[in-house]
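Supplementary material to the annual report.
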Amino acid sequence: MKNVELMEKIEFYINRLGQVGLKDGIRWRCAYTKEDKAAKELFKSLIENEGLLASEDAVGNVYGKLKNSIDYTDVKKILVGSHIDTVRDGGAYDGAAGIIIGLLAVSETIKKFGAPKIPIEVIALTEEEGSRYAMSYVGSRAIVNGLMENELNSVDEDGISLKTAMLLAGYDPDNVMKAKRDDIHSYFEVHIEQGPVLEKTGNKIGIIERINGIFFIEVEIIGREDHAGTTPMNMRLDSLSAASKFMAKLPEVVAEISNSATATVGKIRVEPGSSNVVPKKTIFTIDFRDMDVDKLTRMNEAIQLELNQLKHQGFKVNCNLATSELPVDLNKELINLCEVVVKDLGLPYMRMNSGAGHDAQIFAERFPASLLFIPCKDGRSHSPVEFASNEDIAIAVEVMSGILKKLAW
Amino acid sequence: MKNVELMEKIEFYINRLGQVGLKDGIRWRCAYTKEDKAAKELFKSLIENEGLLASEDAVGNVYGKLKNSIDYTDVKKILVGSHIDTVRDGGAYDGAAGIIIGLLAVSETIKKFGAPKIPIEVIALTEEEGSRYAMSYVGSRAIVNGLMENELNSVDEDGISLKTAMLLAGYDPDNVMKAKRDDIHSYFEVHIEQGPVLEKTGNKIGIIERINGIFFIEVEIIGREDHAGTTPMNMRLDSLSAASKFMAKLPEVVAEISNSATATVGKIRVEPGSSNVVPKKTIFTIDFRDMDVDKLTRMNEAIQLELNQLKHQGFKVNCNLATSELPVDLNKELINLCEVVVKDLGLPYMRMNSGAGHDAQIFAERFPASLLFIPCKDGRSHSPVEFASNEDIAIAVEVMSGILKKLAW
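Predicted assembly:
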């Protein structure tokens, strides 16, 4: 794809959107802030620039719709896009690349083939990351299931409820159910992989078959606080030493059940946390993911069994399975359609699973949904260094354009 | 020892001193605060109550000296005592038991045998714990070596220098060298064990032969930050996983060199510290102690060798040996003298090493010094639950009285 104009647009759109939400060198666009508003205003201007009609729904999802040359009433719509928010200190591609690819794919295809038979809407979803409120996928859940009262009452770090934040940003929380839709034909999303596999294997497109289930355990191992100098090694009940042995074994424990699973201890804290005191308490998290729900259940059992064996040595162990998001299958017909298009273009690609959660999994609850990955540098994301090349983004525009052409024209 | 009056005094003195420095249920007597001053005033009143003369030196060490029935000029003095300060949220026995045992041993012996040939001074040392300033043993170091200018300039968490704190508490920092002494015959200290060995073995007295050396390494393992869901296990450089394997192996690494050594990771922190991010950086401390300096040196090498092997896997490893306090031998003649007295009293005792640092090691640099341990409940210390029984304290008074009798009368 050597479309100079398209490449320049990608460069310009990514850079412009990437500059929104920067403050003191940190990029953070989260729900219902002025950074969020600025990003949406900018994206609406890009939509208009591409000849589409910009609008917002009741919760702040931004739409780019076709101008009414054809009456599409009573026809289900194809949605294509991703989310517009970022994590704190995030990058310029996670979410952003997806909405720009969606927008350009729609406008490029219309430019070539005129108005489609099935209407297409570009969508920039509000708040997928959950970086302000504990809940993720606010925009897609508002569309698919509607936001619930208890969700509207959840509060951020400053005690401001989602409801209040909406009000302050100019949205009426009494109207949130107006964002819910039944008229969706299908949902398409392109996202950076956020992992190293495409880059390492030289593939340009990942066609996602399944979004992995995510289980999340909070662990507390309680031993005894002792003086680091005066308590002989064999008289200790060192919670960190016990946790270390567990953590060292964790990769094996999950690999015995699934060789594609991931397991991560990302957060750890000891009490009292003094260099000359044997740690009484070690508190840590285990995030483990797999595509198979039975295997996740067995991993959960195996992890807890392993931890509970510490009780025989005198430790107290508390395990709390705080999250158990089940794996989600994406639509097989759309997967096949994507594969046909990618093959036709002669692109190196692979079918794969997603280890991260995405809006596509929310849409998949009620509608045919599809998710494609593009490579990102060193697999990095959720960081200012995250990067996808203009060339790879242009390839995704071409792929998405091909998919839309086959489906909607 | 069924001396009812002595037992009541122990009960009363321990309780009275234990109440000084309590604020909002937390006991903390640290250098040059009003809690410190209150404790010193109280201890001076106890000294007077025992018929001795109370005084303070230039840095706030409290002395209880004999009234001048005999001219002791030009005679070297025996010192007996411990420190008067506590750690933050400390107990009523660490240090406190030692100064009360010293005071009562001196007064009991004088009551029975009159004035000694060698003068004895009770001493309550200022600031052993280093809970306000990074440096420990302020009082004993002022006596043994004199405090240095750079030490006086060290600052607390609020940026107040030791010099300023002294001034505010009514001491003249220009006079600190006046606390330094050459006229010391010997130093005797009784301390709670702060470990479980005496209690578990049923011994009433531990005669310390050596104070263990303390080495302290600060470690940083740097890997790579990755998404916990999208980065396959075999493509990670997980610093916490690497640290876990090391920590799990640490007890073996030191045990291969010395079976009496201790090694403790008491403090650990990961970055970025998010449950769904593979930790890029793991920072932790290793405190390891032994009685043999060669073994400590070999342990240091073995630990760093073990850690540096992680470099072959792609990790960056930084090790900083922040502390290397060498082991200190206590005076052999005094050890033998103590043993004779303890044996004569028919007490169960053991010779042992101290895993914790004590003022006695500072005195040992220039003077004959002796350290005895008494049992404490469950080996606990540096905590409000620390406890030694009145009976065990009375035994120590009797032992110390016997030692002083043999030495000074």
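The mean pLDDT of chain A is 95.
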